[in-house]
Amino acid sequence: MAAPQVEGEKRQVRRRRKKNAQRRPLRRVLRYGLLTVLALLALPVLLSLLYRISWVHPVSTLMVKDLVTLQGYTRQWTSIDDVAPVAVHSVIMSEDGRFCSHSGVDWEALNTVIEDALQGEKARGASTISMQTVKNLYLWQGRSFVRKAMEVPLALYFDAVVSKKRLMEIYLNIAEWGPDLYGIEAAAQHHFGRSAANLTARQAALLAVTLPNPAERNPARPGPGLSRLAGLIERRAAKAGGYVGCVR
User: Fold this and answer.
1) Spatial CA neighbour of 106 closest among 156, 167, 150
2) For position 80, what pLDDT does the model report?
3) Is 74 helix (H, G, I), strand (E, B) or coil?
4) To the nearest 10°, the Cα dihedral for 137, 89, 176, 135?
5) 19, 30, 139, 207: which is deepest, by most CB within 10 A?
6) What does the pLDDT read at residue 111?
7) In this predicted structure, which of 30-44, 80-94, 103-117, 185-199 has the lowest mean pLDDT?
8) Among residues 193, 191, 222, which one has the least CA distance to residue 209?
9) Share of the chain above pLDDT 90, in %
10) Is the pLDDT of residue 1 over 60?
């Protein structure tokens, strides 16, 4: 009787070992997957600290895509001090009038958008320049609640560790102003044949209102609607005052 019992116990041990052996690859995959996710989460945190350094010139995910697909892109990095102040002011007044007063997220605007969406109204944007910057640096394009949920903490962190002036400088140099065309210097040269330092108030306003849809808007050949919008931004930029104090 002892021999069959011992043999049965051996079979049970072999089955347990076989089952554990089958589980090990799954555990290994899960472990590597978790480590990959943690690394991806840590990357923006570390890069944001690196991007505080003035001689570091960040690239956007769209620029990386253009390189990977062998399309290439045009971008000439320029210091914010070498950009016409009216151009900086125009972008702020067009894209994010509260840029200097919020901490990365305009909660009032975001809450209004959420309330409108819950009431079934058409969705509209509430992205700050900080949110657009982290989206361009770390995330993907297109509308997505998942992406928006990731934007918020990233924008708050980025705004906390990077100065407003440096943040604006990065945004101006990674924003898309046309197919494979990035940064305000390349945009000024391409559309108006002059450097960003020499943009007129009208040209600066036209470039600013192009940002929401650079694929379809051409600042060098604006239609009536784009011209009217540029006129509005030009007037706002002229009276920006304290709204732009953080980038001076």
Assistant:
1) 156
2) 98
3) strand
4) 30
5) 207
6) 77
7) 30-44
8) 222
9) 69
10) no
Would you say 183 and 174 are in contact if contact means Cβ atoms under 8 Å apart? yes
Best CA proximity match to 158, nearest among 141, 192, 135: 135
Same domain, yes or no: 216 and 96: yes
Which tokens sit at 18? 């076989």
Beta carbons within 8 Å of 71's beta carbon, 6+ residues apart = 180
- How far apart are the C-alpha atoms of 19 and 81, rounded to whole Å? 65
Other CB atoms within 10 Å distance of the CB of residue 162: 20
**Residue 24 domain boundaries:** 1-50
Alpha-carbon distance of 161 to 164, in angstroms, equals 9
Dihedral of CA atoms 245, 49, 43, 104 in degrees, nearest 10, equals -20
Q: CB atoms < 10 A from the CB of 218, how many?
A: 15
Spatial separation of the C-alpha atoms in residues 32 and 77, rounded to whole Å: 37
Instruction: Examine the domain organization and report whether 196 and 171 are in the same domain.
Output: yes
Residue that has been written with the tokens 């001076």 in this structure? 248
Where does the pLDDT of residue 42 fall: very low under 50, low under 70, confident under 90, or very high at 90 and above? confident
Predicted local distance difference test score (pLDDT) of residue 50: 97
Of 182, 166, 96, nearest to 131 by C-alpha is 96
The amino acid that residue 53 corresponds to is I
Is there a single domain that holds both residue 77 and residue 174? yes
Residue range 13-42: mean pLDDT, rounded:
67
CATH number for the domain spanning 125: value is 1.10.3810.10
- Condensed to tens digits (0 to 9), the pLDDT of residues 124-146 reads 567 999 999 999 999 988 777 88
Mean pLDDT value across the chain:
88
